[in-house]
Design a protein that fits this description.
Blueprint: H1 4-27, E1 44-47, E2 73-76, H2 80-85, E3 88-90, E4 95-101, E5 125-129, E6 135-139, E7 153-154, E8 159-162, E9 173-179, E10 185-186, E11 222-229, H3 235-238, E12 255-265, E13 270-276, E14 282-289, E15 294-304, E16 314-324, E17 331-342
Antiparallel strand pairs: 1-2, 2-9, 3-8, 4-5, 4-7, 5-6, 6-9, 9-10, 11-12, 12-15, 13-14, 13-16, 16-17
Length: about 350
């Protein structure tokens, strides 16, 4: 028989256990998504923390979305236009701004001398101190976009700046880095266990908040951007995000070009690009094998105007795909489909 004193004793033991557990639970700081955009649609995670201690690299899912020694998570936008339109960077947790820098131009480091970013590779940046000694750092912020100053107290998800292209980077993004009280790098996707997860299941014990975690699903490969244009363009022009015709292609356009940019292409992926006319017949069918892993990749196909210099009116369709796997069982890992209209030519032009 359980006595009254036995019940009281059991309750006390349970209470002590709960009290001991609470400080441990409270010591685990969780982080919110540090960018105000829809992941997988308006922005993408280009690189994760490198969890391989050797000269090779791998992300927390044993993939190649990282590079040797990378210490943070890179949240990118697809184009310079998206950056210029403005994508806000948010404080990942409440804390105090302890360091910051502004004034560096938004220029790809490929277009400037190394000396211009020496010892300032982070570009315009912010460091926030959080409880438990944690720090978060936000790099490559847009010049003049910082909304805080040193000593400011910030709340979780408070806007603090915008994604930029400052410092040592060649694409617009924010490098988000977490350090613990010892100054050690913390991968929010590994959480406190710090062991790599190579299967298809997302880890349960990440350091993302419950509201942020669903958006943080691992996307190995994706289409960043795509569009139609009326002449051949280069990769840098495509990454501006402005080389596109969105409504109608002129009936007398010199050419019809379909372009696409991809992230996370892998060695031996099949790249397929198609352009189809209003009669349903292919104008261009192009395919090739990707050589080597590509953090980002650009491809276009196109057709010059007919001899009459007048395009047949109607709907033109385009398809861009990355396929992966053995030739007999290839799976589409990234795809974009677009269509655009060509109006009827005036009768005087016939």
């Amino acid at each position: 028989m359980i006595t009254f004193f036995g019940l009281v004793g059991f309750a006390l033991i349970l209470l002590v256990g709960i009290m001991m557990f609470l400080p441990m639970a409270a010591s685990v700081l969780l982080f919110s998504q540090p960018v105000e955009c829809r992941l997988g649609e308006e922005c993408f995670i280009q690189n994760y923390v490198d969890v391989d201690p050797s000269e090779e690299w791998k992300d927390y899912r044993c993939g190649s979305l990282s590079y040797d020694g990378h210490k943070g998570t890179d949240f990118r936008v697809p184009s310079l236009k998206a950056m210029q339109d403005g994508v806000r960077v948010l404080a990942a947790a409440e804390g105090e701004v302890v360091r910051l820098r502004d004034g560096m131009a938004d220029i790809s480091f490929r277009d400037q001398a190394d000396a211009q970013v020496a010892d300032r590779e982070c570009g315009n940046g912010i460091v926030i101190k959080h409880r438990g000694g944690f720090e978060t750092q936000y790099c490559h912020l847009k010049q003049g976009s910082l909304l805080v100053k040193q000593g400011d107290k910030v709340t979780r998800e408070q806007p603090i700046a915008e994604i930029g292209l400052s410092g040592k980077t060649e694409f617009p993004h924010v490098h988000f880095e977490i350090r613990n009280a010892k100054g050690e790098i913390v991968d929010p996707f590994l959480g406190v266990r710090d062991t790599v997860q190579c299967n298809e299941d997302e880890p349960d014990d990440t350091l993302w908040t419950a509201t942020s975690k669903p958006a943080m699903r691992y996307i190995r490969t994706a289409v960043l951007d795509s569009g139609f244009y009326t002449k051949q363009i280069t990769a840098p022009e495509a990454y501006t995000g402005e080389m596109r015709v969105t409504e109608e292609v002129p009936y007398n356009a010199p050419a019809l070009v379909f372009w696409a940019t991809f992230m996370g292409a892998q060695d031996q992926d099949a790249l397929v690009m198609q352009l189809v006319g209003p009669d349903g017949k292919p104008l261009v069918n192009y395919s090739t094998k990707v050589e080597g892993n590509k953090a980002q990749m650009f491809q276009l196909v196109g057709k010059k105007a007919p001899r009459s210099r007048i395009w047949p009116a109607g709907e033109y369709k385009a398809l861009g795909q990355l396929l992966r796997g053995p030739d007999l069982v290839q799976q589409v890992v990234a795809e974009t489909e677009l269509s655009i209209q060509v109006p009827e030519a005036p009768e005087t032009s016939q």
